[in-house]
UniProtKB/TrEMBL annotation:
InterPro entries, per the entry: Uncharacterised_HI1736/YgjV (IPR019629)
Protein name per UniProt: YgjV family protein
Domain of life the protein comes from: Bacteria
Positions of transmembrane segments: 45-66, 78-108, 128-157
Keyword entries, A-Z: Membrane, Transmembrane, Transmembrane helix
Top-level taxonomy: Bacteria, Pseudomonadati, Pseudomonadota, Gammaproteobacteria, Alteromonadales
One Pfam family recorded for the sequence: Imp-YgjV
């Protein structure tokens, strides 16, 4: 099987896992599922000769697991530092910069204790990965990030907008 086709199959696995992940309310479940998806996505990028994205995603797989147990901001800062080293060491151009910027947002989100902020940071980071994949032209990768951002937005709506709308009571009209 050609590397490009295999990369698209692995991106499809990533897609399924990420869509499922962002519909959960439990932050630790989201992070565990994102860890698994990052592993497959890293292979996808490796097959497309994108070392920065591949190594960032493999490191992100570990980072998500760490962030389940520990929410220390120093670990978040250390993770961003490691991602910067990866981006500098594997730098291949503008795509390396976009991948690093996306990772900064996602790292901040994964180490927050606030589920709402997690989802916002995932939407911003996912949007940057979407831009990355459009420039790279990986069709399933584009679909992964478009659906990831959309799925995250749906989850955000379900848990933070819809719930607030249902808590608003109608004013009583006196007769």
């Amino acid at each position: 099987m050609p590397d490009f086709l295999l990369s698209q199959v692995l991106a499809s696995i990533t897609l399924i896992i990420e869509c499922y992940a962002m519909q959960h309310k439990n932050k630790n479940t989201i992070l565990a599922l994102l860890s698994v998806s990052c592993f497959f996505n890293g292979i996808h990028y490796f097959l497309l000769a994108q070392p920065t994205a591949a190594f960032i995603f493999w490191f992100s797989s570990i980072r998500f697991l760490i962030s389940i147990k520990w929410k220390f901001q120093w670990i978040s800062a250390l993770s961003i530092g490691v991602s910067l080293l990866i981006a500098c060491y594997t730098y291949i151009g503008f795509l390396s910069v976009i991948g690093f910027m996306a990772t900064v947002f996602i790292t901040i989100g994964s180490f927050t204790k606030n589920d709402k902020l997690l989802r916002i940071m995932m939407m911003v980071g996912g949007s940057l990965w979407l831009l990355h994949n459009i420039i790279l032209w990986t069709p399933v990768g584009i679909l992964v990030e478009a659906i990831f951002v959309g799925s995250t937005a749906v989850g955000f709506y379900r848990y933070y907008i819809k719930d607030n709308e249902s808590n608003v009571t109608e004013p009583k009209i006196k007769s």
